[in-house]
Amino acid sequence: MLTDYHVHLRPDDEGTAAADYFTPANAERFREAASERGIAELGVSEHVHRFAQSLDVWAHPWWRENARDDLDAYCAFVREETDLRLGIEADFVPGREDRMASLLEAREWDYILGSVHFLRDEAVDMRGDWDVWRSGDPDKVWRRYFETLGEAARSGMFDILAHPDLVKVWGADAPVPDGDLRRFYELAMDGIADSDVAVEVSTAGLRKPVGEVYPAAAFLEMCLEAGRPVALSSDAHVPEDIGHGYDEAVRWLADLGVTELAVFEARERRLEPISPSGSTGT
Ligand SMILES: [Zn+2]
Ligand SMILES: [Zn+2]
Fold first, then answer.
1. Which end of the chain has fewer surrounding CB within 10 Å, N or C?
2. Cβ atoms within 10 A of the Cβ of 271, count?
3. C-alpha span between 119 and 146 (Å, rounded)
4. CA of 58 to the centre of ligand 1 (A)
5. 90 CA distance to ligand 2 centroid (A)?
6. How far away, in angstroms, is 261 Cα from ligand 2 center?
7. pTM recorded for the entire structure
8. Which of 164, 150, 151, 54 is nearest to 117 (CA)?
9. Residue 14 banded pLDDT, cuts 50, 70, 90
10. What whole-number distance in Å separates Cα of residue 156 and Cα of residue 87?
């Protein structure tokens, strides 16, 4: 069994309309790409900040620019017009846990991805006005990132911790702390160990400046020691990226002794053996 749960039916570009992407024909393009690559378990997880309802949780100016779609229309579309699992990529916003929980608990998901994209008002993975790296001392940014990630796990709101070392996204294009990075990973580990969350292995990092799978092997080893299961995804925003880099990821998981993947339905998790089926994506 291979999975791809972290999938966006629409690109992140501004000026796109949900109506152009939340169509059965578009969902079918993703399903076909998954089938070609031997991925049986396919789900979508649109960004929470795309939905008007997210402004009840957090009114960050960048969210206000983006929050246009209707969350219930998205859920109804996925349930009624596709055969995809229904997920969402929700931010962990410290101090807004109750509001986010209200938004999430009012709908019936197959799984919820939890992401840390922001540290207070600043983004770790966006350039421009909200870029944390404009003023960021790398040690401070990495410390805050992994502390927040641990809190996200501990919150119990999420089934999967998405791209768990996203802070490395820029590679050499942003400052990176010196030395053994495990001192930062440790900051997240108590929260992760105390939680029931699955840890995402995401091939999206291969398409970013860092050019590596998320998370680093040392981070994943610590999660495995803490007994956490693995969820495999590509974070595709177009069908061509479904299962991107899975050959490499599956080999890497085997080297780390991971033989099973987390599979979700109605927020129940089970583990299935990884069985790459010949033609996986590159
Ligand atoms: Zn994300
Ligand atoms: Zn995503």
1. C
2. 14
3. 10
4. 17
5. 9
6. 19
7. 0.96
8. 164
9. confident
10. 16
User: How far are the Cα atoms of 171, 181, 227 from residue 113, in angstroms, in the given order?
Assistant: 24, 24, 19
Token pair of 72 as six digits: 């219930």
For residue 152, the one-letter residue type is A
In this prediction, residue 70 carries a pLDDT of 97
Torsion of CA 167, 141, 216, 179, to 10 degrees: 140
Closest CA to 35 of 256, 267, 272, 243: 243
CA dihedral for 254, 258, 259, 261, sign (positive or negative): negative
> Could you say which ligand is closest to the alpha carbon of residue 233?
2
Distance CA 216, CA 222 (A): 10
Cβ distance 115 to 162 under 8 Å? yes
Under a CB-based contact definition with an 8 Å cutoff, are residues 114 and 158 in contact? yes
Sequence letter at residue 140: K
Sheet holding 41-47, edge to edge: 3-4, 41-47, 85-91, 111-115, 160-161, 198-202, 230-233
Which residues are within 5 Å of ligand 2 (an ion), measured at CB? 89, 235
Q: What are phi and psi of 85, to 5 degrees?
A: -70, 150
Identify the DSSP state of 82.
-
Q: Can you tell me the mean pLDDT for 130-154?
A: 94
The residues that bridge with 231 in the sheet, in sequence order, are 200
